[in-house]
């Protein structure tokens, strides 16, 4: 046992083919196919990628949330819900993987986010998804949060493949003033249009509504006969917890003030997605579109989010940090109204969307993503059987790990996480591993169920309790704590 100090192993959901969700909630394999869509003006579909910020796994109506998300629920129910879908535990990493199709160990962005004062950005030699889509003939527009570096002009979204950009280069600024403070007194205006500050543009507008209006303007001015890639990276529902008053009115029954504001922000986001969808229909894009919706990482309970029943939170490699809300909605899906339990990861969008666009990755690009369209659209097996969640050699070493503990093959003090089929291996310190129950009715903020106990020093019951709890989380009670606390 000592030899494995620092290694944790746990079982995960069983996975399988895609199923059709019936009205009564039971799942049946889908027999027939839905009719072919109308023939579109361009054979290349319009690609709309909507990324939410910090939306927790539970924070969508169809995962049992008390927060109302009727639009997300409907779009997901009519499309394909991704129920074995993974992202990275924080902002920059997820965004970098989406836009390059590569794990962070292949872009040098393994450690944390790009900080405001850090002279770093997405490597310039990786061809980005919008660059490849442009080559395939697409118009490419980005609205919202970039967070992939800006210390040189070459790093800006308009130099990395987007025809236009309107949004913030960092994250977590004020939703109305669009100022972002890095530390007390170190503040800057973070609303940009193309490669310049968008002075006077914000004018006190709430970012979720402001970004939606920009999307509506793009759709109104673009010819639906030409293929369009639209990357909409909303600031919501990341802190600071700010929401227009009228969305708060629905949630007076939620006692926890942070959860209440978060709920209001999410309802506003849901309405924004409704408005985007309406605009796609009104301007003739919808029939030939693929809409992907994804959160960028797990929720932050201290800022109103919930990942229940998953363990852990944003910033951790536990399921609650990396398993995300995600779905695809499109008239072009062969089988709609399905739930896909195949393994899908955020790197997979690059090759998947590029293939839909009849584009091709660069020769020798060595992507980590897979084209998963047949798994999504037709219920085939996903080509993906593993995910390297990350290896972060810079993160603080775990006290109990060593090369010896890893049999000379691996230094178990290093923070890393990998999933292979039903198994997940965590080494080093994976982050806070407690369960945070739904917090809607507590005025005291989130409570926690601590399970992070040192198996060597605590009664075995503590570990067993964790295994019992995991029955809710995982279809098999296979949460095995081998030994050691990171
Ligand atoms: C959605 O559109 C309606 C009607 O134009 C508008 O009142 C509302 O503010 C919009 N909501 C968002 C979040 O954009």
Automatic annotation (TrEMBL):
Any GO molecular function: metal ion binding
Family matches, as PROSITE patterns: SULFATASE_1, SULFATASE_2
Q: Which SUPFAM superfamilies does the entry link to?
A: Alkaline phosphatase-like
Q: Show where the Sulfatase N-terminal domain sits.
A: 45-357
The secretion signal range is 1-18
- Which family is this sequence assigned to? Belongs to the sulfatase family.
The name this protein goes by in its record:
Arylsulfatase J
């Amino acid at each position: 046992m000592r030899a494995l100090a620092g290694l944790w192993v746990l079982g995960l959901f069983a996975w399988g083919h895609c199923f059709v969700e019936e009205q009564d909630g039971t799942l049946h394999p889908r027999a027939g196919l839905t009719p072919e869509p109308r023939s579109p003006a361009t054979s290349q579909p319009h690609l709309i990628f909507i990324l939410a910020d910090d939306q927790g796994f539970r924070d969508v109506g169809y995962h049992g949330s008390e927060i109302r998300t009727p639009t997300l629920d409907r779009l997901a129910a009519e499309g394909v819900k991704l129920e074995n879908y993974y992202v990275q535990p924080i902002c920059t990493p997820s965004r970098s993987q989406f836009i390059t199709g590569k794990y962070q160990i292949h872009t040098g962005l393994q450690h944390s986010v790009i900080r405001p004062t850090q002279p770093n950005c997405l490597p310039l030699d990786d061809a980005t998804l919008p660059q490849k889509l442009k080559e395939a003939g697409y118009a490419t527009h980005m609205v919202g949060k970039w967070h992939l570096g800006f210390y040189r002009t070459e790093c800006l979204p308009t130099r990395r493949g987007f025809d236009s950009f309107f949004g913030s280069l960092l994250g977590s600024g004020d939703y109305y003033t669009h100022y972002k403070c890095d530390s007390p007194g170190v503040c800057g205006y973070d609303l940009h249009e193309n490669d310049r500050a968008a002075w006077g543009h914000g004018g006190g507008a709430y970012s979720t509504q402001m970004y939606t209006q920009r999307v509506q303007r793009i759709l109104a001015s673009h010819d639906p006969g030409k293929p369009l890639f639209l990357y909409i990276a909303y600031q919501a529902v990341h802190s600071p917890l700010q929401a227009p008053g009228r969305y708060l009115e629905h949630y007076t029954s939620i006692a926890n003030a942070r959860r209440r504001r978060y709920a209001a922000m999410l309802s506003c986001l849901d309405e924004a997605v409704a408005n985007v969808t309406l605009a796609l229909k009104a301007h003739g894009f919808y029939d030939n579109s693929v809409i992907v919706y994804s959160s960028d990482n797990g929720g932050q309970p201290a800022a109103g989010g919930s990942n229940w029943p998953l363990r852990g939170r944003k910033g951790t490699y536990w399921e609650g940090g990396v398993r995300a809300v995600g779905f695809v909605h499109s008239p072009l899906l062969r089988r709609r109204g399905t739930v896909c339990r195949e393994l899908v990861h955020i790197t997979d969008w690059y090759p998947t969307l590029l293939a839909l666009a009849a584009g091709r990755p660069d020769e020798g690009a060595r992507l980590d993503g897979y084209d998963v369209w047949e798994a999504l659209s037709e219920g085939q097996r996903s080509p993906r059987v593993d995910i390297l969640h990350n290896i972060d050699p810079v993160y603080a070493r775990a006290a109990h790990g060593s090369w010896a503990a890893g049999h000379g093959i691996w230094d178990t003090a290093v923070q890393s996480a990998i999933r292979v089929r039903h198994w997940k291996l965590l080494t080093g310190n994976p982050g806070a591993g407690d369960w945070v129950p739904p917090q809607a009715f507590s005025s005291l903020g989130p409570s926690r169920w601590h399970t992070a106990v040192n198996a060597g020093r605590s009664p075995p019951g503590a570990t067993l309790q964790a295994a019992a709890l995991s029955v809710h989380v995982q279809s098999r009670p296979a949460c095995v704590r081998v030994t050691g606390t990171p």
